[in-house]
Specification:
Bound molecules: adenosine-5'-triphosphate, magnesium ion
Structural class: alpha+beta
Low-confidence stretches: none
Radius of gyration: 27 Å
Mean pLDDT: 94
Largest sheet: 8 strands, mixed
Shape: elongated
Helix content: 25-40%
Strand order of the largest sheet: 1-5-6-11-10-9-7-8
Distance between the termini: 46 Å
Number of strands: 16
């Protein structure tokens, strides 16, 4: 038994999965940077007040926060999400609007660990501050869709809803409170507690006991004011024009107190019921103001990296790399030629590795096999005297003797580069 193991809800991301993670983030960067989003890296912990602003009635804040007092007596929290940090940064640095940024990195929530739900998990996301145009909502949603397509993920479902404007939402919450209070006896204990704190969140309950009361609840649609209704219609129209499939889900409410108007969620068909959500986002108003800035509308999304990769696994999409290197050098003369050839290959842009400790030809060939290299370069005493190398293509076992000076070109050709 080892003395230590990772803490509950945390994991080592081992090779080759870690490479897959990096490629995931790179693919995301490619998609959003092509649309003019700039990279931002907020700190992983902040004054807890920043996160309290996302809503005192959300589970993220009431139950899941990793907060502590540091040695200087400051109350800080590991970030549970990054929208609040981005808004805090906006207020602190006052960039010109529209401010379009993207981020990637870990978040921390004290949740009950299970498959697809971790205490440290990664997200990639974007935020735009300073734009009310519904066409932006369409762009934001379209970028997430484009990213899923780039990953090769197919079974993704998009649900959208509108939470209306300030007054709309308050009237709806009051109607929900009245509805659920009239059916209190039917609700589970947990949901009754949720009703006290945040009636909107009751709609989120997945407990079968609550299903009937939720199905009979009034719908946000009836409470949308004319501005919010027009905005929502424009978003739907834009999504249709962009050829993006969606369903309107009246029950889709996201917890944060500052969510307004457009809200959306992506789910993956390949995942188990407990955690099908692979990403979500929406508009928010008031968060920048709460953090001490001027009234500024915002919109963004966060996509869960861990869960999206599980969805990819279920579909066999976005596979981890199968090889560490392109070429493996086998040197039976002691290894100095391997060193020289590896350096030359690497400089020529070919990923190259070799064996160590003067192992036998057979042992070195085994290592070559394990490396997944498409090409093996072999150099023994005969090749050294002749000034040649052997280039073997692993796929079909064919091999060629070439001049040592041609090594890089020959390897690249054998790799099809
Ligand atoms: P859930 O309903 O599953 O708890 P959420 O509403 O708390 O999700 P968001 O805050 O909207 O999630 O975060 C966006 C995405 O981040 C989620 O869709 C999910 O893919 C991912 N995510 C959230 N919490 C976790 C977690 N504990 N472990 C892994 N991924 C997570
Ligand atoms: Mg959650």
């Amino acid at each position: 038994m080892p003395s230590f193991q990772t803490s509950p809800g945390t994991r080592d991301i081992l090779p080759p999965q870690a490479t897959r993670w990096r490629r995931f983030v790179q693919t995301f960067a490619d998609v959003v940077e092509a649309a003019g989003y700039d990279h931002i890296i907020p700190p992983m912990f902040e004054d807890i007040g920043v996160f309290l602003r996302v809503g005192e009635a959300t589970e993220i804040v009431t139950k899941e926060m990793y907060d502590f007092e540091d040695k200087g007596g400051r109350r800080v929290a590991l970030r549970p999400e990054q929208t609040a940090s981005v808004c805090r940064a906006f207020v602190e640095h006052r960039p010109t609007t529209p401010w379009k940024v993207w981020y990637a990195g870990p978040n921390f929530r004290y949740e009950k660990p299970q498959h697809g739900r971790y205490r440290q998990f990664d997200q990639v996301g974007i935020e735009v501050l300073g734009v009310v145009d519904p066409q932006l909502d369409v762009e934001v949603i379209a970028l997430a869709s484009e990213f899923y397509a780039r990953l090769g993920l197919q079974g993704v479902r998009l649900a959208i809803n509108s939470l209306g404007d300030d007054g709309d939402r308050e009237r709806y919450v009051a109607a929900l409170r009245e509805h659920f209070t009239s059916r209190l006896a039917e609700l589970s204990d947990e949901t009754r507690a949720t009703l006290e704190r945040n009636p909107l969140r009751v709609l989120d309950s997945k407990r079968s006991q609550d299903a009937a009361a939720i199905a009979a609840a009034p719908s946000m649609r009836e409470f949308l004011g004319p501005d919010a209704a027009a905005h929502f219609a424009a978003v739907q129209d834009g999504l249709r024009r962009a050829g993006i499939d969606f369903v309107v889900d009246d029950r889709l409410v996201r917890g944060l107190d500052y969510y307004r108007r457009t809200t959306f969620e992506f789910t993956a068909r390949g995942l188990d019921a407990a955690h099908t959500a692979i990403g979500g986002g929406g508009r928010y108003d008031g968060l920048v103001e709460q953090l001490g800035g001027p009234a500024t509308p915002g919109i963004g999304f966060a996509l869960g990296l861990d869960r999206t990769l599980l969805a990819c696994d279920a579909e066999g999409a976005f596979a981890p790399p199968s090889s560490r290197v392109d070429a493996f050098v086998v040197d039976t003369t002691g290894g100095l030629h391997a060193a020289e050839l590896c350096t030359a290959l690497r400089r020529a842009g070919v990923r190259a590795d070799r064996a160590w400790d003067g192992r036998s030809m057979k042992a070195q060939m085994k290592s070559a096999d394990r490396s997944g290299a498409g090409v093996v370069v072999i150099v023994g005493d005969d090749e050294v005297s002749a000034g040649t190398i052997i280039v073997r293509t692993m796929e079909n076992g064919s091999q060629r003797v070439v001049a040592r000076t041609e090594a890089c070109d020959a390897v690249r050709a054998a790799l099809g580069h």
